[in-house]
Amino acid sequence: MLFILVLILFSLIIFNFQKYWIRFKLAFKIPGPWFIPFIGCVQIAAKLKPEEITGVVQNLREKYKRTFRLFLGPNLWVFLHTPQEIKEALNNLTLRRAADFQQLKPILGEGLLLSEEKKWITRRRALTPAFHAKLLQDFTGRIIFHADVLIKNLERTCGKPIEISDMIFHCILDTICETSMGAEINSQSDSNCPYAKAYHQAFHILFQRMVNPLLGFDFIFNRLEASKQLSNSIKIIHDMTGKLIKERRELITQQYNANNENELNEILKDEIGKQKKMAMLDILLNINIDGKYLSDQDIKDEVNTFLFAGVDTTKAAMCFALYNLAKYPIIQKKIYNEISLIKSTLNESTITMEQIKSLNILDQFLKESLRLHTIVPMTGRKTTCEIKIGDIIYPKNISIWINMYGLAHDENFFSNPYEFDLERFSKDSEIINQYTYLPFSAGPHNCIGKRYSELIMKIILIQIIENFKLSLRNPNEKLELISEMVLSARQGFNLVFKKRK
Ligand code: HEM
To answer: How far is the CA of 423 from the CAs of 65, 319, 367, 419, 429, in angstroms?
Structure first.
């Protein structure tokens, strides 16, 4: 018996050593900090707190000036350097999302962010039309409605300095809930909204799990109070999405059963008599893949993915955009003038997509804001087979990191990269390489919600700029690099919203 146990143990060591040896050999071909075999770069691992990761990786990028590696325990992490390597990685479909994303499975199931292979390909193809410009156009009215509630809440601050992230969070949550699910949760007006609380709590805990390796172990996490809180919040979120899907499915079935067109139109009208616009949920309910409609679970996964991938990212991007408006009053004035000019030519009170598109300075401003404050600073992939990227051959099971923050702050691609420069994205400037500017990533897994979030941000910014003059409570208030990485963290600056006359 003892002999068998020793044999098993010995085989395990040999097997793991073989796996490790392949990584070990690769580690010598790529520069990186010193490491202790099997333990890794202890001097770096100690610094890898969530709020410091981007800073540490940025320093290493500037030090090595080429693709570098880190050993964390027995795991090898490679940080790609050049736009060409990044292009190859982002377009290689054999790479999978990093294992850390799997922590999100309880809430996102097999939605677009976590699904793989054939499932991802068919879903991505089927979901893309839901983000088509023509459909987004239908959302403008409802986005303006939620932006107006935000304006009223900002008016109540009476010019006193405020930390804006919670207000923006609720505005974006309400907007995305309504446009994606047709649900009016009104968390901006109802501070006790159970769905908003559940969303906040669930995503906060899941984010902690993603960035804290200890919480990644189920046997540790399941013993913590946070685990119970997470289950409760997930239940609230699933119950609400489940209820909405059921109601909407029933309504659509009624539509199909209604023979006469008038009857059908009646069903589609809401209580106040306006034609009800299609939410993304309707599109999901109508998706038919190989003769089969998506199940309620499939739809739940996709809707929750839109919320997870869309709310905190758009909120963070909005907060930084407001910070930049307040910090650069001359730019703010230019955008105000541009908006006033367009608004003066409006026949109707609601701005159209075409008019939003013609706001060039606003567009340049948002692009530069997303560059300077890279909302998703890095994304990870895992090799599933041997692949070549650049001139390096990577074996299976290597973590490959795409450092969007590093590229956006590389002076070889952006002069004075830490400065806000509106001209970078002007029509007259040089065309920027798609693989150096990656706020929404690129390649087949790029952000499906890019146009959607840009539309939301532009509409809210237009409403705010039209109504208020923004300034920083303290004009010398400087953003620390630290605040740029933790999406869900408070942004740590106070803004003053002074009503325009
Ligand atoms: C400023 C706001 C946003 C930013 C900065 C952002 C950024 C990104 C990035 C960088 C990725 C690629 C991640 C990777 O390659 O691993 C991504 C993917 C994704 N985003 Fe966004 N996003 C934003 C808003 C949204 C919104 C509003 C939605 C809502 C629908 C959304 C839905 C998704 C989905 C579903 C994916 C996965 C796509 C796939 O793998 O096929 N995002 N996003």
So the answer is: 27, 21, 11, 11, 7
Q: What is the pLDDT of residues 45-85, one digit of tens each?
A: 777 776 778 888 999 999 999 999 998 888 899 999 999 99
> Which tokens belong to 309?
């991938």
390 three-state secondary structure: coil
**69: nearest Cα among 118, 30, 122, 110:** 30
Span from the CA of 446 to the centroid of ligand 1 (angstroms)? 7
Sign of CA dihedral 77, 78, 80, 81: positive
Residue nearest to atom 6 of ligand 1 (CA): 440
Residue 235's contacts (CB-CB under 8 Å, 6 or more residues apart) are none
By most ligand atoms within 8 Å of CB, the mutation choice from 113, 127, 299, 447 for ligand 1 is 447
Partners of 469 in beta bridges: 498
First to last CA, the chain: 87
- Whole-number Å distance, alpha carbon 442 to ligand 1 midpoint, is 10
DSSP 293: E
CA dist., res. 79 & res. 403, Å (int): 7
* Residues 213, 275: Cα–Cα separation, whole Å: 49
d(CA 450, CA 439): 9
Question: Is the confidence at residue 266, as pLDDT, over 70?
Answer: no
Tell me which residues have their CB closer than 6 angstroms to ligand 1: 97, 112-113, 124, 305-306, 309-310, 313-314, 317, 375-376, 379, 439-441, 445, 447-449, 452-453
Six token digits for residue 324: 């930049």
Helix (H) or strand (E) holding 329: helix 329-344
Ligand 1 centroid distance, CA of 81 (Å)? 22
Q: Each residue of 243-262: pLDDT tens digit? A: 888 888 887 777 666 655 55
SS3 469: strand
80-499, superfamily in CATH? Cytochrome P450 (1.10.630.10)
CA 123–ligand 1 middle distance (angstroms)? 15
Tell me which amino acid residue 86 is. Answer: I
